[in-house]
Structure formats: structure tokens, C-alpha cells
UniProtKB/TrEMBL annotation:
It comes from the Bacteria. Keywords: Ribosome biogenesis. GO terms for molecular function: ribosomal small subunit binding. This is Ribosome-binding factor A. The keyword Cytoplasm does not apply. GO terms for biological process: rRNA processing. InterPro entries: KH_dom-like_a/b, RbfA, RbfA_dom_sf, Ribosome-bd_factorA_CS. GO terms for cellular component: cytosol. Pfam families: RBFA.
């Protein structure tokens, strides 16, 4: 990953976290766990972790519905040009990691 890709990816994850915290109308803890940027910097996929898990679909629908507003927010509040197309998905790897930790904790009790 080039230095520019890394900087843009980090900026996108940071801005998405801020945006979700401010705009999300759901009582849930949403974390941007990682971001994957295309090599041409035109597309970014942001991976979300949601607690409680029962709110995942609601948060994902909100995030997908707000994509154009988030891009407008990026245009106003960041120096990223061109602003990449944004997609959001639930981070299944993070969910699996939490489940493994829970199983280990239960086994050790």
C-alpha cells in the first residue's frame, strides 16, 4: 500500500467514525474497524462493528442510505480529492474474534 493510500484510508476511517457518532439515530456502539481502499483511490470499503449485534442491520441500512450525505460531508470537511465511492459492510472477522474470546473466557471460568 502506498503512503497516499494509507493516509487516505486512515482519513476515511476517522471521518466515518465521526460521522456515524454524530448522525446515527440508533442507540448502538459503532466502530469502524478497518478500511480497504482500491489502488486507484476511487473506492473504499469501511468495515463496521456494531454492539449490540441486534442493531447491525439497522446500522448497516442507515450507513448505506447515508452514503451520498457522507461523501458530501467529506467534500466539505476533508482535503481528499477525488472523494471515493464509499461502501459499508459488517466486519464478520471482528464478530468471530469476539465469539472466540467469549468461548475462551467461559472455558477458563
Amino acid at each position: 500500500m502506498s503512503r497516499r493510500q494509507q493516509k487516505v484510508t486512515e482519513e476515511m476511517a476517522h471521518r466515518a467514525s465521526e460521522y456515524m457518532a454524530r448522525e446515527l439515530g440508533v442507540r448502538a456502539l459503532v466502530t469502524v474497524t478497518r478500511a480497504e481502499m482500491s489502488t486507484d483511490l476511487k473506492r473504499v470499503v469501511l468495515f463496521l462493528s456494531v454492539l449490540p449485534e441486534s442493531k447491525e442491520m439497522e446500522v448497516l441500512k442507515f450507513a448505506k442510505r447515508e452514503r451520498s450525505n457522507f461523501r458530501a460531508h467529506l467534500t466539505e470537511h476533508s482535503k481528499i480529492r477525488p472523494v471515493p465511492f464509499v461502501d459499508f459492510i459488517i466486519d464478520e472477522g471482528e464478530k468471530n474474534r469476539r465469539r472466540v474470546e467469549e468461548l475462551i473466557r467461559k472455558k477458563n471460568e
